[in-house]
Amino acid sequence: MDWIELLGYLASALIGISLGLIGGGGSILTVPVLKYIFGLDTVTSTAYSLFIVGASSLVGAIPKYKEGLVNIKTGLIFGAPSILAVYATRKWIVPVIPDVVFTINQFEFTKSMLLMGIFAVLMVFASFSMIKKPKNSSNEPQVAKPITFNYPMILLEGAVVGVLTGLVGAGGGFLIIPALVLFTGLPMKEAVGTSLMIIAAKSLIGFTGDLSTMTMNWPLLLSVTSIAIGGIFLGNYLSKRIDAAKLKTGFGWFVLVMGIYVILKELVFNF
Fold first, then answer.
1. CB under 8 Å to 124, separation ≥6 — which residues?
2. Is the Cβ–Cβ distance between 29 and 21 less than 8 Å?
3. What is the pTM for the complete model shown?
4. Rounded to the nearest 5°, which phi and psi values hold at 169?
5. Where are the alpha helices (DSSP H) in 23-132?
């Protein structure tokens, strides 16, 4: 094992640790780790990311379910269009995107640039959601509100998140959680637990759309996934001893820097 491969596995552990510490955000780093450290191409990186993110979210959802923080009905309503959109995107949309999308003089805007550009924009938005302080930062308990369903918006948001997840391989929790709170009235903690269930289902099912179009390096994929899941347990342990709010803000700034780096590397330096 060379030092680059070792660095990749350490980064995989950090993905899981961040998920365990702050409850999200770590999956946004999966594609850069796979592409820039393990040297996989963009489409393969996004496919592997779906499996890693899905498996990690499934592990994270289990204790939330045991605590009663997963709303199955809401998850099914939001998850159904999202799952269909992810699968369709991986099965039919990603394969037909041309390798060269367009050219300007000698510059070629490639499929990799398109996918990584979308991914970088999502990284920037995700970083803002982690950096900003929540509006209700008090320790007062939330008042329970009746759960209502804005079905048109839920279906639309679920489909949009599904397409984005299918394109870039990220879970999209920073999009799902606010949507669940806004469109269904779920309390924040329940929205977090429900989002993990949705992310697990749509990512793992979406991953099956790639099984017929590419050859999987299962030893690498399972190794990275196992290390990331192990990191979740370590992160959960550390979360009881470390201020998660400060970590979330710091991690948000790190994700922002990474997003800017991806934009510069994929778009600016290649122009």
1. 256, 259, 260
2. no
3. 0.88
4. 75, 10
5. 30-32, 42-66, 72-88, 94-96, 111-131
